[in-house]
Amino acid sequence: MKEAIKEFFRWTCNRDPEGWFSCQHILYVSIMVSIAVSMGILLGRKNRKKGFENKLKVLKTAALVMLGFELIKIVVITIRVKDFWQIRSMFPLFLCSIMLFALPLAAFGKGRIREASLDFSFIFGIICCLSGTYLAGNYFDNCPVLSFDPMVSVTTHCISGFSSLYIASSGLISMKKKNTWISALILLLFEAAALIVDILQTNTDYEHNYMFLMEDSGTPFSICTSIAGGNQVLYTIFVAILYFIYLALFYAGYYLYRKIKTPKVASH
Prior knowledge:
mainly alpha, globular
């Protein structure tokens, strides 16, 4: 039993990893994502007619649980590698980590900051969920599916997906045009923090490619590498802009959908 527990918490296990996009990986994340999606929609619909503060209680719980899991992960990994400064490779500044900032703002913020953060969490929650589960090749190529690192990661990212769908189905979104600049500012500040850390940690053994702002690492951002022609500054600008394009397209798609869905008033 003791050895089994140690094996669960190791990064390099004696068991061979099943691998990214293996049957085990797809089955596991599909079950977890399905649970998150179902709970988000069903609980959101159940609470739709409740008061605003009552609806927020679910998000507050989700935010605290997500932060709790992230803290546990940092503590366990720090103990495992016996290097406190390894925390520099675990800053939550990846694309799929943006909900660690946005969701607490949505749950505990006030006024227009809270409104914009709710919309932002709705917009980015699903993409964070999918990228941190189905596209998490780093975890599933190095660890067995049923081990500490991938299980914690999948759990936190499924909370992102749950929160996004709960916000939508419970009626917490407002998507007010006057708040779009706040959503853009949240994204800008997150990108700025990631870039600053990337630059400070360049040429070190610690993570220095947060938000894929320094290199594409084999991701679809390779198109930015091609367009930039190897120019580092241009590549970083192109990637940063792509995140804003996604945000803008989501807002535009939502407004178009609402316009089509809203019945036209017959003129007399």
